[in-house]
Amino acid sequence: MPENRTPTAARGRKAGRRHPLASIALIAIGLLFTGGAYAAFSTSTASAETDMASQQTIEEGKKLFAANCATCHGMGAEGSEDGPSLIGVGAASVDFQVGTGRMPLQMQGPQAEQKPVQFTDEQTAALAAWVASLAPGPAIPEGELLDGEGDTANGAELFRINCAMCHNVAGAGGALTEGKFAPSLSGVSAKHIYEAMVTGPQNMPVFNDMNIKPEDKRDVITYLKYLDNNPSPGGIDLGSIGPVSEGLFLWIFGLGSIVALTVWITAKSN
Amino acid sequence: MSTSTTTSAPVAVTDKKEIEKSGGFTAAAANYLDERTSISAAVKELGRKIFPDHWSFLLGEVALYSFVIILISGTFLTFFFQASMAEVHYDGSYVPLKGVEMSVAMASTLDISFDVRGGLLMRQVHHWAALLFVAAIGLHMLRIFFTGAFRKPRELNWVIGFILFILAMAEGFTGYSLPDDLLSGNGLRIIDGMVKGMPVVGTWISFLLFGGEFPGNDIVGRLYSLHILLLPAIIVALIALHLLFVVVHKHTQYAGPGRTNQNAVGYPILPVYAAKAGGFFFIVFGVVMLIASLFTINPIWNYGPYDPSPVSAGTQPDWYIGFADGALRLIPPGLEFVWLDRTWSFNILIPLIVIGIFIVTVLIYPFIEAWITGDKREHHILDRPRNAATRTAIGAAGVTFYAGLWAAASSDIIATHFHLTMEGVIHTLQAITILGPFAAYFIAKRVCLALQKKDREIVLHGFESGRIVRLPGGEYIEVHQPIDEYERWRLVSYADFKPLMIRPDARGRITALQRLRSGLSRWFFEDRIIPVDQKEIDQAHGDHH
Description:
Chain A is mainly alpha-helical. Chain A contains twelve helices and two strands, in the order H-H-H-H-H-H-H-H-H-E-E-H-H-H. Chain A folds into three domains: 47 residues, no CATH class; 90 residues, Cytochrome c-like domain (Cytochrome Bc1 Complex, Chain D, domain 2, Orthogonal Bundle), CATH 1.10.760.10; 92 residues, Orthogonal Bundle (Cytochrome Bc1 Complex, Chain D, domain 2), CATH 1.10.760.10. In chain A, 55% of the residues lie in helices and 1% in strands. By secondary structure, chain B is mainly α. In chain B, 63% of the residues lie in helices and 7% in strands. A two-stranded antiparallel sheet of chain B has the order 1-5.
């Protein structure tokens, strides 16, 4: 808060209370408390609600689906010309697509892009519950699989072999054909990483449990979390996209500053 | 200072006293050295050597200093690097690679990065300085080209410099391949593919290079010998020759009052230039150090050990090899066929041939231009790029061609960062690489001629002053302010060229080669603006007064 740093606050309480910004600060603090309390309240209700099997949740999901998704995916999720069938995709798929904001689709394009999430956690869970009730499919992962406490070295090796060709060794993302791309993985939640591996959203292949075992998936998540939590040992990483950013940096800032210095050195003498 | 050795003993003693009185230890030491090496002649000659002052004359120095930084940091790295491809399990402090099988080369590079004090900084200094080295050479070459500094008598020095550029790229690539990480292995795989793409001999050469099937167990050791022994030795020798030529030829200078083809106006090496250059070395070192301490380069810990199966997205060579990678990306598919029981990979051969022609053309350009222009005079005054319109246009075309190839090496990064399709980027760059040089040629040439016209106008009629005057008769004129003589010197002092005439040879014949030469000469000099001479200036002034 700015008023804490102003000299008026230091001089005494009276001056602080009468500071022009005091009322603004008061309102801000009030809003912060109300918002915080609301957030705490709503998350507690969300966690209390995750009864995916209850008929009420499924019914709720069905309604939400009919209102928001059925235009493309069909009333019974059987698919249409505009969207694929969702029968058998499982709760994990819905949780990933809706939970990262990719669905509902903003517009047709090379691929569904991430955007602000459109549904609350409970609505997402209801949608997932309804789609999962249609046919068996991958469930939303939980527990130990997501704790990021696995074997980092094994995860890093698996990541290089299975993921790096699209997502880049440091998970910085990369290009695919026809405008599609593999997104950056930094800051993606463990749950969404796991769901992406199991369900293969967009152009991503499915890495099922025969292909990469659940413990190995946990290791991959562990590696990605390691990258998130440990900045590059060499300093600023320039986006981790490899020699292109290094070369650009060198030409623009390295050689640029040196040329500026040559101009300075020769200008002094004239 | 006395250098005589025939004086008798008592005189020598008084000499010595005088020296001690006048110069102290420095003078005594200098005298001691000089009596034994006769170095004063060299110091006198070199110390009085004049260097003209201009920022663009320091670019070669930047390259030299980067090379010194590379030598220093590289020596440090050799203390710890082990060029072996024997397999070990990594047991250093970087957690995500613990227990992973890798070559000793990779493990020792990781040790340098994480377990040797100052090792990572030195690796980054070495790599950043390498990028700067090649970039500074590139910019230095552009300066030489566009100012015509490669003309007689400096053609050979251009060739030496260009060979240095190629050697610097070779040094860079061998160094990039040494850590045996995923990125360097992918780079070597592309080289292997290019070698194998050569008809008939390709496979044999590849097996010879790698000591068997790629990747083998030998390549890192072999590249190491090249990287730290052979290539640096050649580079040092050629740099020495390059600098020797600079001293022999004396430095070029831009046109200006008092500057002629026979003199050099600037500062003597001692004391001014030596102090400046020495200080500038530390500035360059400081900039490299600053970058290396703040910015990651080549994070091999992310890439992991080389394994032929994975290839990371965004795998690129360092910037100076980018043009070759770009050529491979731009070549359209479907150019490979089987003929005479051999595979003919024209999708590899065409880029190799095109790049080869490009490199050779740049290498011998001074001779090509000298032949076309028929100019056998010595040139110590630099051209302003606009005054050599065709050369500047050729340079612009070459730069555009190179830039197209270069950009293509980052086609995937361009696609993701600007939300474009990969195919769109590739097709656009194909068009830019092929059509761009023509567009650049015409635009650059027209711009040069227009600038020449503007200069001519300014010399004859001065600057527009913006002051409107109404004459008694009611006529309005804008008063032009004449430029001062110093400025005018710069604008008018350039040579005029005319296209060569075709002349029959001794036997009275006009050969096809002569026709070609005169045709090229016409292309070179047909469009030109004749420099202003004194008569025109007088005349123009007469008009005004």
